[in-house]
Amino acid sequence: MQAGNSTGKQRAGGRAKSFTETGRRAQIVAAAIDVIAEVGYQRASFMKIAQRAGLSSTGMISYHFDGRDDLMREVVAEAMRVADVYMRPRIEAHERYAARLRASIEGNLDLLAEYPNHLAALAEVLGNLRGGDPGMVAFTQGMEAILAFQVEQLRKGQQAGEFCDFDPWVMMRAIRAAIDDVVRRARDEPDVDVRAAGRELADLFDRATSATSTTSR
Amino acid sequence: MQAGNSTGKQRAGGRAKSFTETGRRAQIVAAAIDVIAEVGYQRASFMKIAQRAGLSSTGMISYHFDGRDDLMREVVAEAMRVADVYMRPRIEAHERYAARLRASIEGNLDLLAEYPNHLAALAEVLGNLRGGDPGMVAFTQGMEAILAFQVEQLRKGQQAGEFCDFDPWVMMRAIRAAIDDVVRRARDEPDVDVRAAGRELADLFDRATSATSTTSR
Amino acid sequence: MQAGNSTGKQRAGGRAKSFTETGRRAQIVAAAIDVIAEVGYQRASFMKIAQRAGLSSTGMISYHFDGRDDLMREVVAEAMRVADVYMRPRIEAHERYAARLRASIEGNLDLLAEYPNHLAALAEVLGNLRGGDPGMVAFTQGMEAILAFQVEQLRKGQQAGEFCDFDPWVMMRAIRAAIDDVVRRARDEPDVDVRAAGRELADLFDRATSATSTTSR
Amino acid sequence: MQAGNSTGKQRAGGRAKSFTETGRRAQIVAAAIDVIAEVGYQRASFMKIAQRAGLSSTGMISYHFDGRDDLMREVVAEAMRVADVYMRPRIEAHERYAARLRASIEGNLDLLAEYPNHLAALAEVLGNLRGGDPGMVAFTQGMEAILAFQVEQLRKGQQAGEFCDFDPWVMMRAIRAAIDDVVRRARDEPDVDVRAAGRELADLFDRATSATSTTSR
DNA sequence: GATGAATGAGTGTTCATTCAT
DNA sequence: GATGAATGAACACTCATTCAT
User: Fold this and answer.
1) So which residues are the signal peptide here (chains A, B, C, D) (predicted)?
2) Is the Cβ–Cβ distance between B114 and B198 less than 8 Å?
3) A91-106 residue pLDDT tens
């Protein structure tokens, strides 16, 4: 999952939470991220998550979260928060859109090297969402908004003459899919050099978006 | 899932099957493909598949298949068979590697337009395999072999001077990931013009692989 | 199961059977004996028996037998028939009751050495009968009759002064239980010398029944 | 099943258990003992056990026990514990091996009179173990160890001149088989006087093992 | 007679969730 | 707040039996 440029998160339920409840929730979310990264979205049962979190029963999770979907929403929110903190400064350090795109791609895979479980969990949860899932609809829309922002960046790059002519939605999804694929590969083969893969992908999409190759003909 | 160049498959058990049993198996596999495409690999229970196939009980599926893994193997084999029949002549109609790559990408998405459930089920099953799954190991290896063949094609294209310098494994996985992403998108948003997306992706990876930009420098 | 001195068998159902049907039945019974000896009474499913018999479906068994109990009755009857043919002349070759008892014990274990599956299946089926099983009640009573005959032999030996004073029912059941135990042991450890065990058991029960030890004091 | 001289047991899983969980486990084990004694090992389904224990679903049993084997292990452990408590002082009250053997036989059947289901369940579970059952292997070995101890007692009795010459393994298995047979008979015919049977069996094996017959010659 | 596909009840097990304590 | 026992539905799978052909 390509991360960065998040629009920020907010809890689904609006009621105020005490400090310890917030702490418990964070603890459970952290355990969920590890478990999801390890065994996948579907096999990440409450029991496994509770064990990883050092809890003695799954009831604790149901107590703190309004169902499995709520927990998963928090997992995604936490992963996105981490990604946002990591990515935003690296992207905004650049002016030109092409440089920002490269920073985005390489940054995602540097992030993967540092937080492999976060990105793996993120990809797992989002990859297992269905369009029809009620309760996750608003969620999916939030994801679309983030993607739309990134697409808009591509479009601006085109208008600025940095990028050639292409469908920015198709390009953006291809970039995200390629990054997610490395995330999945890193999960199964921990020895993969994800930073090197990041540079390769950045080169790849640089060529794919660059205006120079067309103008030079 | 990018398909094509399948190595073919046959049932593990050697016992001869009657025509009607073969028919029932095919019917169940077809139902499984539809259900998997609709609700995903994990949620595709025998009960849903049996209902879709017009069977009164899940026992019938266990009667015809040697467990869930066996059914899933047949699902993949069937999807690969369809893909192979569709893709192979389209790819082999071209001489040059660049043209073959374009044919492969566009062909996959034309195939998606005609058999959306087949490709969706294929991606679902393969995407949910874990390294540790015993009984599916040989299966994963078979997929790797196909991917390796496609990587080899890219490498030959580089040697022939048609492609620029890039890591063929990274490129191949990026291509496959981009195609699979369209498959997933088409599943959730049936109105997507997948053939147009195919042309866009073909253009994208044509630029990303083309040797022209280097010669013009 | 101690065998011998059978009162003979008769089919439960009274209708006449054709020659081929009788052949099929015998074939199935033979397969059932092997399967039961190998995997036990409860795990001996129609499917395993059909496979062993070279039949392509379990329906064949249900066609020829009026349910599982009917098949099991035939299994016992066949095993008892074999045992009776083998045991009767060996026992009747002796005049004295003590010699007949020894012939009975050693004969049973010689029989075990020659037909291990028959005796194992016999013990399995009889050992898994419950008192309450309807449809098997008449059957159990038949077994009791055989045992009663053997008890009567012991009693006659006592009256003849060959045996000391003991409860013949308890003695008979102990003998049978000891023999059955060797049958079970031979099933799990095929290297056991069952004939040697037979001689040991014959000695054991010779001492336990002998009138000499008491008179000699 | 002849019991006594148990080596003791404790749960495989090391997790500490609350009092109520321990209570529930004991309740389920007690229900399992009753059901197994009534319908046998194989027919003792979780559903029947749950109903007997007053539970609404079989899931509760899976919650408290790590599978069917785990429950069966506890059943045997409980039966052996009861047997050990009952038998040990009765056996150790005697010095001589012959007296100990008599105490062992009569004690087992007195125990049967008091805990008929415990011994019936014990015999059922152990009698249905196959050599190939993984997870129960260590279990079978434990039973062999107990039997070996009892065999050793017989051997010592022979060396002490109390017993005549016989194969102690064959003798021990015959004794155990005779006791188990009474257990089974008591299960099907509750009116049997098991204590009387115990005295008869003790007399029987006293004669079978006694050294007096040899000295008088 | 013989076949084998179909049936439906039953198996142990996992799961997210609930609720009395 | 926190616990963990209890719940009931769902899961894949096996089984003996039935029945149209």
Assistant:
1) none
2) no
3) 999 999 999 999 999 9
